[in-house]
Amino acid sequence: MTPANSIANDTTNYDETSPLLRTTSNAHNAEAQIAEKPKSTPLPKGQLTALCIVRLVEPITFTQLFPYVNEFMSDLHLTDDPSKIGFYSGLVESAFAVSQLCSIYHWARLSDVIGRRPVIFLGIIGLAITTLMFGLSKSLASVLVARCLGGEHSIPAPKLISNSVGGLFSGNIAVIHSVLGEITDSTNQMVAFPIYGLAWPIGSIIGPLMGGAFSHPALKYPEILGYQFLKDYPYFLPCFIASTFAIIGVSLGFIFLEETLPSKRNGKKSISPNASTNGDSVTTAPALPEKPLSVSKLLSVPIISALALSGFMLSYIGTSFDVVFVLFCYSPIKSGGLAFSASQIGYSLAIAGAIGAAIQLCIMSYLLRTFDPAKIYCFCMSLWPYTFLVLPVLNLIARAGLDETTGELGTTAVAFLWVGIAFVLLLTKAACIAYGVSMILTKENAPNAASLGQSNGLVQFTMCFARSFAPFVVSALFATSLEYNLLGGYLWLVIMVMVSFLGMTTSRKIKQSSVKTIG
């Protein structure tokens, strides 16, 4: 076919905007399109698996005490009034958070100097030891010491992702987040972060079931575990099992988890942007290491300050819900609660973990691929007011189905009650997605790579600051509302709904300042 015939047979419409060299232009366009879409970085499966194993330790040691913490405080005979148990539970919860507040930023800075691995392993070993101390405690003072040194607090990350273990030895949550940020990039984080996020809900399924099943083992299983030691220390066994998980986690992490701090990697050199070429040889000028920014300079970055402020609100609201939910389940029905046993509280928290795992496994990756993280964060924050508003409805269901003669709930009431609990926990876990998204936003908006650890440390510091007083404040508010029947015993509800709406408002600053990763 001649060129003339080729042109004659071409049915394409041309105008003055059509390129003269079609083939060349189309080739360039194709190359441009290929260049615009970066190739996804292979997922570091080994490193991610090791990090998930290390992360799994924290929710197990944290959530195993939730089913029995109020019963523990009651066994210490601190008060004869059951409505005041929440005051002491809140005091214990606040103690570890104050210790974490004092340590988390310093652990993050230390990891930028000596490496991530030593800080993570030291924290987990300390956590194992202090968990044993908690199980052997026989007084409020010894409980507070154990919690201050190690603690087990985190926000069910999702919370709750995100979440962090409280106490002096557990300020390494920011370091673990930094490791995840250093082994991933923007092309594979939508896969890596949901997988990492699975560690918390899986651990929060195991922990409550373990705590509810193995507290008071001598009474529950007298034929197998009827030892005098377990009668004297009825909460030692779940703490011992949790500590065993911690030792296994640190052992596997020591073997498989590699150092990710760039300055501590061995045998890995990178080409400096200042490299110059001369013929076939490449002369690489020594790369000047980036320096981390100071706290004042980090706070002057709008998105970092917005993440810190909103992280404070998120942590306060999320921690308050965790504390209130357990108190609500433990309180008598006539006092506005559900009168649950330790085992029933454990089952409900296990349901929460299962819901969280389903969210991470089924929809988290889709959300990160489809929506901008800042928009996801704001939506999650908007759910918190409704999580609190559902709780009184559960009490109404319990009241309606309560048999006054036997003091037991009817079958129908029990069924509706567990459906309601599943619904409120679904709302909570959806809201707690904000913890994981906050970690992504911090990674994407850190001023430079050298400041990643400190940026995570600063955001986590504000979260810990909220946790340092949230348990005490909300438990005291809960107890006071019931004791004096303020607003029908629901003053705590009104205040927490108002605080939740305030948190929803502060989150909007993140959407205004964040770097967009999805158009």
TrEMBL record:
Pfam families: MFS_1
Keywords tagged on the record: Membrane, Transmembrane, Transmembrane helix, Transport
A GO term, aspect molecular function: transmembrane transporter activity
Skewed-composition ranges (Polar residues): 269-284
Membrane topology field: Multi-pass membrane protein
Subcellular location: Membrane
InterPro entries referenced in this protein's UniProt entry, alphabetically: MFS (IPR011701), MFS_dom (IPR020846), MFS_trans_sf (IPR036259)
Region span, Disordered: 266-285
PROSITE patterns named in the record: MFS (PS50850)
Domain Major facilitator superfamily (MFS) profile: start-end pairs: 47-507
Transmembrane among keywords: yes
Annotated GO CC locations: membrane
Domain of life: Eukaryota
Transmembrane stretches, start-end: 119-140, 160-181, 193-215, 235-257, 306-333, 345-369, 376-395, 415-437, 458-478, 484-504
Listed PANTHER family: MAJOR FACILITATOR SUPERFAMILY (MFS) PROFILE DOMAIN-CONTAINING PROTEIN, MAJOR FACILITATOR SUPERFAMILY DOMAIN-CONTAINING PROTEIN 10
Protein name per its UniProtKB record: Major facilitator superfamily domain-containing protein
